[in-house]
Amino acid sequence: MARIIGAALPNMPWQEKPAGEKEPIWRFDQNPIINRFGTRRSNSIFNSAVVPFEGGFKGVFRCDSRSISMDIFLGHSEDGLHWRIEEEPIVFTGADGEVLRKEFRYDPRVCFLEDRYYITWCNGYHGPTIGVAWTQDFKTFTQLENAFLPFNRNGVLFPRKIGGMYMMMSRPSDNGHTPFGDIFVSQSPDMEFWGRHRHMMGTIKDNSSAWQSTKVGPGPVPIETDEGWLLIYHGVLTTCNGYVYRIGCALLDLEQPWKVLYRSADYLMAPWEPYECVGDVPNVVFPCATLADAATGRIAMYYGCADTVTGLAFTTVDELVNFCKAHAL
Ligand code: BMA
To answer: Looking at the domain assignment, is residue 1 inside a domain?
Structure first.
């Protein structure tokens, strides 16, 4: 039995695995939990992050507007299922105006680390790079320096220091729809200066796992387990009709997380349901957050569906660890 190292979260959303279900992860039976009309001006709400906060939940949501501007918005929920999303994007404060300069913001992750919640997102600064900010109360938000030079996407923090350093995964990219991409992990003593970049995980170019042959990118903040860091990530295949985004999982070494212990050859989840196959960008499942209960091993995963709506799926630490090992590359 694998064990989550972390806090108990008895009030997280949960549904038992349906009788007869063969998959290692199962969708909430009322998906999608957030439709495209979550705010007055939204075109789509997807690729979003959720954390427990003061007995309830806070979220940072990617809402694309009716003019198709991309920004991140605060959301509030008692149960993790029903959300009230604010009408105006999050306002950040920061010392240097250059840091606050924004072209666009999307695909947020939220990571509780030490005494605060760090938000990382794809931040437009002469092209996409990784924005970083923190909050302690979800009322004021302090933006720090961008972690990297452009072009980069999918900045995802580890939830504690490792070897005395903060660690962040990212996926260097180009300025467009990037037809390549590997996951790297970088270290920082202070959340500002990032270095010691290590290659973690590349694409699979042979026939053994083609769903992740074009690019891969880290998804939610990794979950610490006694078997290693549990990483849920996305993998992309190029087809004659464009990209298909699927979800896989891997176990990383606890002390040297750029070392992959197990990685699934089979995808964990793929766009199968109509709301995942049809939308503004068809055939996309894109995970950005999990909630986990260390007492029971339950995991709830929030994911964007077809770049249009937000879905929720359930699994357990045992299901994922066994899956990584059973189908290891
Ligand atoms: C990626 C990002 C994601 C998006 C995905 C599929 O490059 O832009 O936000 O979900 O493409 O369109």
So the answer is: no
